[in-house]
């Protein structure tokens, strides 16, 4: 009985297992139905929903940046790509880096050891603690960072160290040129500060737009060195004296005497006392434009800026054919062009290997900073219009308007023809637009062209003048002879 019950129990047990396996396989083969407890969780997992959330975050971030007002504090810009594509080398330092944009780049690290030597000299000469300088710059770190475009990938300590190191290096250069490097404790043959060494290259690097320090940082460091919190204008004077060799319109001694301008008179100009300065490039720009050119009348501004070829005036060859004379104007204001009674007077312009980089960075600053005018851009475009060929450069050199240290006149022509190739500019919004209209009006008068043609063809040398007058005398004699012959025929003597 027990055995029979046991066998039945085992049989029922195996039947139950088979049924459970069959039911399990059927359930596994059937589709699973899910009933989400929350519909919002399903939307969160949607790719479209995540895309919308990412866009909302970007909009909020842009709003935060706009509210912070960081754009209004920008003063040291990265050169726009459309300008850099034309000649990127003119915007990139070759020897020394200043500020964060080119900090730590391999070709520029060699100068870092000289920066540390300068800092050592400053600490030794002033008998001060470096912590004084670090604390002073730390107080203005946020203001200094806001002067640069884009995020600066440097920690607070790294940024402050860079500002102090680069700033003291710049001040040593400024004071060394003004007071003498030996007075500051440097030997005559110092590898970094020898005047006949790399000084010119450093001046060219330190005037580039991307290679600037905020002027208030330099002013704070100079105040610590001189233990004087009120040295207004001194920094601008030192900077202008240092960058004076880059001035595009240097005057000769005779011109200085005639105009009563003496060496060092540029130091009288103080941009800080007028409107303040952004950095050394801005100070140099303001000194070149002092006093500022007269703005163009408002009724002339009636077009939109563009990147098409800018034509303000005809080239030198065409102007000469129309009887317009070109003369050198004795002034230290390179932008001060005058036109009166058919004579176009242009200041003397010195072109050297650093002129291209200087003008390109000045133009880049005017393109980027809204508070800068377009005077330098206007002048460069004006010169680009004047110069179309090496012959134009040769004639300007003959007139004393252009002096260059480049290889040939063709190099000068190519330089000016390339400077404003990609510049956005409105030719009507130029201080030279009124002058250009006067020149073009004179150019269109036919009588001026005929008179110029007569002069060029018949009065271009003494022998041509003698031949012309001989021809006139011969013509008069022939006419007189003919007249008396006819007169004698009709009225013979009785």
Can you walk through the features of this model?
- Helix 17 (375-386) packs across helix 19 (409-419) and helix 18 crosses helix 19 (409-419).
- This protein has a three-stranded mixed sheet.
- A hairpin with a 2-residue loop joins strand 2 (338-340) and strand 3 (343-347).
- By secondary structure, the protein is mostly helical.
- It starts with a helix and ends with a helix.
- The protein has helices spanning 2-29, 39-44, 47-68, 81-84, 112-126, 130-139, 141-145, 156-179, 199-206, 215-226, 234-242, 253-259, 271-274, 280-288, 316-321, 355-368, 375-386, 390-398, 409-419, 433-444, 446-458, 462-490, and strands spanning 325-329, 338-340, 343-347, 349-351, 402-404.
- The chain crosses the membrane at residues 463-490.
Order of strands, widest sheet: 1-3-2
The N- and C-terminal alpha carbons lie at a distance of 193 Å
Number of domains as seen in the coordinates:
3
Class per helix and strand makeup: mainly alpha
Mind summarizing the main beta sheet? Answer: 3 strands, mixed
* Number of strand elements: 5
Nutshell version of this structure?
This protein is mainly alpha-helical and 494 residues long. It has three domains: 71-288, no CATH class; 307-451, no CATH class; 462-494.
What's the structural blueprint in terms of helices and strands?
Blueprint: H1 2-29, H2 39-44, H3 47-68, H4 81-84, H5 112-126, H6 130-139, H7 141-145, H8 156-179, H9 199-206, H10 215-226, H11 234-242, H12 253-259, H13 271-274, H14 280-288, H15 316-321, E1 325-329, E2 338-340, E3 343-347, E4 349-351, H16 355-368, H17 375-386, H18 390-398, E5 402-404, H19 409-419, H20 433-444, H21 446-458, H22 462-490
Parallel strand pairs: 1-3, 4-5
Antiparallel strand pairs: 2-3
Helix pairs in contact: 5-8, 6-8, 6-10, 8-10, 8-11, 17-19, 18-19
């Amino acid at each position: 009985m027990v055995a029979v019950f046991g066998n039945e129990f085992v049989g029922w047990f195996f039947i139950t297992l088979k049924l459970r396996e069959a039911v399990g396989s059927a359930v596994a083969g059937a589709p699973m139905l899910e009933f989400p407890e929350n519909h919002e969780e399903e939307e969160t997992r949607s790719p479209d929903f995540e895309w919308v959330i990412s866009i909302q975050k970007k909009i909020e971030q842009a709003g935060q940046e706009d509210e912070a007002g960081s754009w209004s504090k920008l003063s040291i810009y990265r050169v726009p790509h459309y300008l850099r594509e034309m000649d990127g080398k003119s915007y990139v330092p070759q020897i020394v880096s200043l500020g964060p944009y080119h900090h730590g780049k391999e070709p520029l690290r060699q100068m870092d050891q000289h920066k540390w030597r300068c800092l050592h000299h400053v600490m030794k000469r002033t008998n001060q603690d470096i912590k004084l300088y670090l604390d002073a710059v730390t107080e203005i770190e946020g203001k200094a960072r806001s002067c640069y475009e884009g995020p600066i990938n440097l920690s607070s300590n790294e940024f402050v160290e860079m500002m102090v190191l680069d700033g003291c290096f710049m001040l040593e250069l400024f004071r060394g040129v003004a007071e003498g490097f030996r007075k500051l404790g440097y030997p005559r043959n110092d590898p970094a500060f020898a005047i006949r060494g790399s000084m010119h290259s450093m001046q060219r690097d330190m005037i580039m737009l991307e290679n600037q320090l905020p002027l208030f940082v330099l002013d704070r460091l100079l105040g610590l060195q001189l233990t004087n919190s009120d040295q207004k204008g001194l920094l601008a004077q030192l900077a202008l004296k240092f960058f004076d060799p880059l001035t595009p319109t240097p005057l000769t001694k005779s011109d200085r005497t005639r105009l009563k301008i003496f060496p060092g008179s540029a130091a009288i100009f103080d941009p800080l006392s007028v409107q303040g300065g952004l950095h050394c490039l801005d100070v140099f720009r303001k000194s070149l434009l002092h006093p500022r050119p007269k703005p163009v009348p408002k009724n002339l501004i009636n077009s939109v800026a563009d990147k098409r070829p800018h034509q303000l005036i005809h080239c030198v060859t065409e102007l000469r054919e129309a009887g317009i004379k070109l003369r050198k104007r004795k002034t230290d204001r390179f932008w001060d062009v005058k036109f009166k009674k058919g004579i176009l007077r242009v200041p003397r312009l010195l072109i050297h290997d650093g002129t291209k980089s200087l003008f390109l960075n000045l133009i880049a600053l005017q393109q980027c900073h809204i508070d800068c005018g377009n005077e330098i851009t206007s002048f460069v475009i004006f010169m680009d219009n004047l110069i179309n060929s090496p012959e134009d450069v040769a004639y300007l050199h003959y007139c004393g308007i252009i002096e260059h240290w480049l290889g040939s006149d063709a190099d000068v022509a190519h330089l000016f023809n390339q400077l404003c190739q990609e510049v956005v500019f409105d030719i009507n919004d130029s201080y030279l637009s009124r002058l250009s209209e006067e020149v073009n009006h004179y150019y269109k008068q036919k009588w001026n062209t005929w008179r110029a043609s007569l002069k060029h063809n018949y009065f271009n040398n003494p022998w041509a003048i003698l031949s012309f007058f001989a021809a006139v005398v011969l013509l008069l004699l022939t006419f007189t002879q003919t007249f008396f012959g006819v007169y004698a025929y009709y009225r013979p003597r009785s």
